[in-house]
Amino acid sequence: MTVIGSTQDPEALTLTFVAEFDAPPTRVWKVWEDPRQLERWWGPPSWPATFDVHDLSAGRTSAYYMTGPNGDKAHGWWTVVAVDPPHRLEFDEGFSDDDGKPTDDAPARVEVTLQPVSLADDREGTRMTTVNRFVSIEQLEQMMQMGMEEGMRLAMGQIDAVLAEGTTQHA
Amino acid sequence: MADALTDDDVDRLFHALADATRRDILSRTMRADQSITALSRGYDMSFAAVQKHVTVLADAGLVSKERRGRERLVRAVPARVRRARELLSRYESLWRERAAGIEAILAADDSVRGTARST
């Protein structure tokens, strides 16, 4: 896996993340489509996800929860806005209460595209682009609080570097 | 992580940033302090409308207003802008971890097949 790059737009509250994988789009699509595969990577390392309901058809809602280090559960949902297997998926996501009722007024929108790319030896790879747009950020704060427990702490050094090259004037 | 924000703070911050004109005002004030008069020349809207946008930005703590002579100067508050940036950076590291998780699943395919990438 190679992280090709990411772009932040703090004023538009958008994050674009691009990575390449050594497998064709049909295979990478499965890690999104198959709930058993999805739950192996969706949650932060210290908050593994369990998907009770998952269906990537337009208009369908998925329900999942993440279990924290102390056994706390955080419930979340996706609603598929548009889908074109194995190349494109667009969904809204947010947190919900224990009964699955959304707690976010304005969900985050995620747009995923899987493009074929040619790798060495004529192998087909996939370039995965995710565009994450936030309108209300409560769930982002919440997500970040979870990830902070352990996994993300390691990334803090990098982030400080990013911030250092960011807003420097006035600072 | 120095400045912890309450849920209300976060709501105000993101409400303020949800509007294109306000984002533009913020960009301009980040480059240099601006008077409201100067700002309103840049938009097809009244002084009062621009002033309203500036008030939303100020309530969110993204800009401060300062009286200088007869003018009111609008100045960006970098700490808040930095906070928005920081949240996105942390979200980015989540995606890095997710991509590494996907990679691990794909790598397991290869070991199951025995011969890597036989297709």
Q: Tell me, what's the shape of chain A?
A: globular
Helix run count of chain A: 4
- What is the C-level CATH assignment of chain A? Alpha Beta
Poorly predicted parts of chain B: 115-119
What strand line-up does the widest sheet of chain B have? Answer: 1-3-2
Write the SSE topology.
The complex is a heterodimer of chains A (171) and B (119).
Chain A: E1 2-9, E2 14-21, H1 25-33, H2 35-38, E3 49-53, E4 61-67, E5 73-84, E6 88-96, E7 108-118, E8 124-133, H3 138-148, H4 156-165
Chain B: H1 7-17, H2 20-31, E1 34-35, H3 36-41, H4 47-59, E2 63-68, E3 71-76, H5 78-113
Antiparallel strand pairs in B: 1-3, 2-3
How would you describe what is shown here?
The complex is a heterodimer of chains A (171) and B (119). Chain A has 171 residues and is an alpha+beta fold. Chain A has a single domain (2-165), classed as Alpha-D-Glucose-1,6-Bisphosphate, Chain A, domain 4, CATH 3.30.530. Chain A is built from 4 helices and 8 strands, in the order ββααββββββαα. Chain A has an 8-stranded antiparallel sheet. The longest helix of chain A has 11 residues, at 138-148. Chain A is globular. The N and C termini of chain A lie far apart (36 Å). The model of chain A is unreliable at 148-171 (pLDDT under 50). Chain B has a domain at 7-77: Arc Repressor Mutant, subunit A, CATH 1.10.10. Chain B is built from 5 helices and 3 strands; from the N terminus they run ααβααββα. Chain B has helices at 7-17, 20-31, 36-41, 47-59, 78-113, and strands at residues 34-35, 63-68, 71-76. At the A-B interface, strand 1, strand 2, helix 1, strand 8 and helix 3 of A face helix 1, helix 2 and helix 5 of B.
Which descriptors apply to this entry?
heterodimer; A: 171 residues; alpha+beta; Alpha-D-Glucose-1,6-Bisphosphate, Chain A, domain 4; 8-stranded antiparallel sheet; 8 strands; 20% helix; disordered C terminus; B: 119 residues; mainly alpha; Arc Repressor Mutant, subunit A; 3-stranded antiparallel sheet; 5 helices; 3 strands
